[in-house]
Specification:
Helices cover 48% and strands 17% of the residues. With 163 residues, the chain is α/β, with parallel strands linked by helices. The chain has one domain: P-loop containing nucleotide triphosphate hydrolases (Rossmann fold, 3-Layer(aba) Sandwich), CATH 3.40.50. It has a 5-stranded parallel sheet, sandwiched between helices. Helix 1 packs across helix 6, helix 2 packs parallel to helix 3 and helix 4 packs antiparallel against helix 5. The longest helix has 20 residues. 32% of the residues are buried.
């Protein structure tokens, strides 16, 4: 069984791409890391991130036990190396194949995607600045797929073909 991890800044399209892959690949489970990190008010410290990692790995482990599940797509903004490493190590301990992709785009595209997303409550000007400021971090990672001029379908196809 393979776990595809989609990482990247807020608003880049992780959820849209992950859901597209899951909906078009029978037997695929979709996990949004934010589900495992949903504390109100939002508190993003080491303790809550460690809890979220544990919750994510627990879900992945349960999907692994399900005979109907053939693949898992995990989408989450992972901007700490220790969080990423903990997820990777946990998946390795489950003896699952890993494909990790960081989605990025240019700042104009990110702004456009952000403004066109009417469903997410995080789409404020304050969080847009946080997201655009994080582009350089995500763009410097090893497993980057620039989605600037690509549709959701094209990004999904590249991921499924191994970029």
């Amino acid at each position: 069984m393979k776990v595809i991890i989609l990482n990247g800044p807020m608003g880049v399209g992780k959820t849209a791409v992950g859901k597209y892959i899951a909906e078009h690949t029978p037997g695929t489970a979709f996990i949004d890391g934010d589900w495992c990190f949903d504390i109100h008010p939002f508190i993003g410290n080491r303790e809550t991130k460690a809890m979220a990692v544990d919750n994510i790995l627990h879900m992945i482990g349960n999907y692994k036990k399900c005979s109907e599940c053939k693949m898992i797509v995990l989408v989450w903004l992972i901007d700490n190396a220790w969080v990423y490493d903990a997820i990777i190590e946990g998946i390795k301990k489950l003896n699952l194949e890993i494909e990790s992709v960081t989605l990025t785009c240019n700042i104009v595209t990110l702004n456009n995607r952000w403004k066109n997303d009417k469903e997410c409550p995080w789409r404020t000007e304050e969080w847009l600045k946080v997201s655009t400021d994080s582009l350089s971090y995500f763009s410097a990672l090893d497993n980057v797929l620039d989605t600037t001029n690509l549709t959701i379908e094209a990004v999904s196809e590249r991921i499924m073909k191994g970029k």
